[in-house]
Write a structure and sequence with these properties.
Number of helices: 12
Strand order of the largest sheet: 9-4-1-11-10
Largest sheet: 5 strands, mixed
Order of helices and strands: EHHEEHHHHEEEEHEHEEEEHEEHEEEEHH
Number of strands: 18
Radius of gyration: 22 Å
Amino acid sequence: MSEGGVPAGAKILYFDCYSGISGDMTLGALLDLGLDLQQLRAMLGELNLPGYHLEAEKVKRGGIAGTRAVVRLGEKMAVYRDLPDIIELIENSTLPRAVCAKSTAVFQRLAEAEASVHGVAIEEVHFHEVGAVDAIVDIVGTCAALHLLEIDTIICSPLPAGRGEVQTAHGKLPLPAPATLELLAWRQVPVKGSDVDFELVTPTGAAIVTTLADEFGPMPSFTLEGTGYGAGSRDPGYPNYLRLLLGNRELPGTFYEEENAVLETNIDDLNPEIFGYLMEKLLSAGALDVYFTPIQMKKNRPGIKLTVLSPLEKVKLLQELVFYETSTLGMRLYTARKIMRPRKTATVQTEWGPVRVKYTPPEDKETPGQFAPEYDDCLLIASRSGLPLKEVYRLAEQLFKSTGIVES
């Protein structure tokens, strides 16, 4: 049974934002947690973004050791980019599809917040600080790091609100910055007051956590496996860190249950080309599953039934997305109980790179284990090696069988 919305067996990452969050704090905390810097550099190398070098510096803040992610820039770097520039950069990369989708979703939300605050169309938003190379590395690097660490669930603490002013490309703005407040209001994030006279939650940090976190609230019960402390550029004399706690919820038995919401609507007047885009948007926003069913509607018109499986805490976000992206005027909402076998993830190494394999541990002779290689990883290996995708699957299956985790 899940607890507090966290599935049993999930690999959990808890964002303890007692001193706020920014892009470099997030990336630094992930590196401090144990993420291999060379592995992260290699994945970021799939992004066609020259002129920088990512480093990890060990620092001490208030007597506690942590890590600061630093992006060293070359000369003549662009001072700003707009959303289409950034999306094109990400989509033209060879990064795993999941990393591209999450990175794009973070920038999309940030652009929407900036557009709302400044009263302009989203296409007119120029990202100034956020569009700079270091911020792109922070956001895409964070999404890549979460992919490499195989995180299943992200939970975030309430966020502190600093006070005072911050200097931006738009001049001095009050704290929290207007774009930050827009993002926090969008996810209805719990906030708490603070007497600190500097920026604790940056727009980049807010965009990362409001887009990627599954829920906000207190720390759930789980087995703690590691911690990471990520420092920003400011040293106020106390432990000014983003703290990450990595853990795993132990499996209680052969099966477990989870309650989710189901959103459904029938559509017969939408351009069919939009449905693929809609599916990617919904999955990036946190939908657990999205599928389309051909149906026959009134006056014998062919149509599509859209079904979205949603975590309970993301119902409002996903229903707003359906209304925004489709022509529907209404939808059905109900809850459903899922009964699932526990799942774990292992990684096998091929000569072209790693492949994750999801598997269910065997409980007994009557309940054998099952396993399946991750599609995105196999697709990347197939593109690198030139092997047929089916051969990559077969290779990954053979390597996994050799581990002895699940008997064939």
